[in-house]
UniProtKB/TrEMBL annotation:
<dbReference type="InterPro" id="IPR044861">
    <property type="entry name" value="IPNS-like_FE2OG_OXY"/>
</dbReference>
<dbReference type="Pfam" id="PF14226">
    <property type="entry name" value="DIOX_N"/>
</dbReference>
<keyword id="KW-0479">Metal-binding</keyword>
<dbReference type="InterPro" id="IPR050295">
    <property type="entry name" value="Plant_2OG-oxidoreductases"/>
</dbReference>
<dbReference type="InterPro" id="IPR027443">
    <property type="entry name" value="IPNS-like_sf"/>
</dbReference>
<comment type="similarity">
    <text>Belongs to the iron/ascorbate-dependent oxidoreductase family.</text>
</comment>
<dbReference type="InterPro" id="IPR026992">
    <property type="entry name" value="DIOX_N"/>
</dbReference>
<feature type="domain" description="Fe2OG dioxygenase">
    <location>
        <begin position="206"/>
        <end position="305"/>
    </location>
</feature>
<protein>
    <recommendedName>
        <fullName>Fe2OG dioxygenase domain-containing protein</fullName>
    </recommendedName>
</protein>
<dbReference type="InterPro" id="IPR005123">
    <property type="entry name" value="Oxoglu/Fe-dep_dioxygenase_dom"/>
</dbReference>
<keyword id="KW-0560">Oxidoreductase</keyword>
<keyword id="KW-0408">Iron</keyword>
<dbReference type="Pfam" id="PF03171">
    <property type="entry name" value="2OG-FeII_Oxy"/>
</dbReference>
């Protein structure tokens, strides 16, 4: 299998980290964005004009205070499709250990990581660079290891065996984010006027993809990106970042820098929640910038319904005044789409909208 993967990508594969380590003074041509797509990296962008929501989840467990937190979540979902959470129940040691394991993985020799390389989006464990190295017209300054993570017992044996700590440390973080996702989906369902157990069975049996990303220091961050503008297919993405780099698009189509908050996790609404809510909530469009000085790590834990389970607008949110605005889709439908299409040209969610609005 490893030899097949190497042959598919051939000698054209060069990771972003390898370029950084080689000391290139300029980014190669294939990473240079058209001028209209280049980021504005001023530290003041988005920081003085807008307050992004930060929600203390500890109050979810207090019956008298829970309604107030549900309201905060509702407002954040309507305004941004995004919020940060504190007191989320995942210990700082579990977070630190996961970041340590990721650092050790990306520090491995290139030949070791290449054993997991693949350009097949259906592969349950794959190492790669950019979005899809073999098809991207413009490449992105990112290396990643992606693996299915729920149920953990089904997938963990396929995860990297090197570094030796990887399975244990990232496994604990994966399980903790799965628990957090269930709590968040209960709260989001409540905020929409649904039973908090709405989709409970599908969520428990659902899929989880852990995308562990390394955005190496980049010699020219003003003309490149770590990830292009996109929304996630998932119900929710729970994001851990080691430093600032994420930007989200607000309702006025302005890019807003998401600040790094020690101990906080980022919650991003995905396409599945947009469809479930019948457009009451929208999935957040986001991108990733890079910097000259440090490697940035992130864990994007993407949670969804089971692979072939279709998501559709909740019947309680469909009526004569607001008919169903979306068709249904599954995680597998999304994978089929990205295997044939360029996500930078059209968002997947647009393909399931019944009307443009």
């Amino acid at each position: 299998m490893e030899e097949t993967n190497k042959n598919v990508l051939g000698d054209c594969f060069t990771s972003a980290m390898a370029l950084t380590e080689s000391g290139v003074p300029h980014v190669p041509t294939r990473y240079i964005l058209p001028p209209s797509q280049r980021p504005v990296l001023s530290p003041s962008i988005g920081t003085g004009s807008i307050n992004l929501p930060v929600i203390d989840l500890s109050f979810l467990h207090e019956p008298l205070l829970r309604p107030s937190v549900i309201h905060e979540i509702e407002m954040a979902c309507k305004e941004f499709g995004f919020f940060q959470v504190t007191n989320h129940g995942i210990s700082s040691s579990v977070v630190k250990d996961a970041l340590d394991a990721a650092t050790r993985f990306f520090d491995l020799p290139a030949d070791e990581k290449m054993l997991l390389v693949s350009d097949d989006v259906h592969t349950p464990v794959r190492y790669g660079t950019s979005i899809n190295h073999s098809t991207d017209s413009v490449h992105y300054w990112r290396d990643f290891i992606k693996h299915y993570s729920h149920p953990l017992s089904k997938w963990i044996d396929l995860w990297p065996s090197n570094p030796p700590c990887y399975k244990e440390k990232v496994g604990k973080y994966s399980e903790a984010t799965h628990v957090l996702h269930k709590q968040l989906m209960e709260a989001i369902s409540e905020s929409l006027g649904l039973e908090k157990s709405y989709l409970q069975e599908e969520i428990e049996e659902g899929s989880q993809v852990m995308a562990v990303n390394c955005y190496p220091a980049c010699p020219e961050p003003e003309i490149a990106l770590g990830m292009p503008p996109h929304s996630d297919f998932s119900s929710l993405t729970i994001l851990l970042q080691s430093s600032q780099g994420l930007q989200i698009k607000d309702k006025n189509n302005n890019w807003v820098c998401v600040p790094y908050i020690e101990g906080a996790l980022i919650v991003q609404l995905g396409d599945q929640v947009e469809v479930m809510s019948n457009g009451v909530y929208k999935s957040v469009v986001h991108r990733v910038t890079v910097n000259k000085d440090v490697n940035r790590l992130s864990f994007a834990s993407l949670h969804s319904l089971p692979m072939n389970k279709k998501i559709s607008p909740a019947p309680q949110l469909v009526n004569e005044e607001k008919p169903a605005a979306y068709g249904d889709f599954s995680f597998n439908d999304f994978l089929e789409y990205i295997s044939r299409n360029d996500l930078t040209k059209q968002r997947f969610i647009d393909t399931v909208k019944k009307n443009k609005f």
